[in-house]
TrEMBL record:
This is Lipoprotein. Keywords: Signal. Residues 1-18 form the signal peptide.
């Protein structure tokens, strides 16, 4: 009976440990680009339209604490990549061709 509990515990622990594994560098850089963009300025969206229920609208704003604390987007990016992958970025944020900050 004890052996079955050990196997069950191991099966439950493996997915949790896999979530802590480092992310490949290229994926970490893509994910962290969004954090850097939000550190440079808020992002938002406004939608206005009409439907069967009459006029409708939607307003969304994304503001990061990094923006509010005026952190350098390049530092936010570098820290995020390091935390996710365990490696420094392959190139600085401001030299990326997809950086639109």
């Amino acid at each position: 009976m004890t052996r079955h509990r050990g196997v069950a515990l191991a099966l439950l622990t493996v997915p949790a440990l896999a979530a802590c594994a480092p992310v490949p560098l290229d994926r970490a850089e893509r994910q962290c680009l969004r954090d850097a963009e939000l550190a440079s300025r808020p992002r938002g969206e406004i939608a206005i339209g009409t439907g069967t229920g009459g006029p409708q609208g939607r307003f969304e704003v994304d503001i990061s604490s990094d923006f509010l604390l005026q952190r350098d987007p390049s530092a936010v990016y570098a820290r995020c990549v390091q935390n996710l992958s365990g490696l420094p970025p392959s190139q600085p944020l401001y030299t990326r061709t997809d950086w639109k900050g």
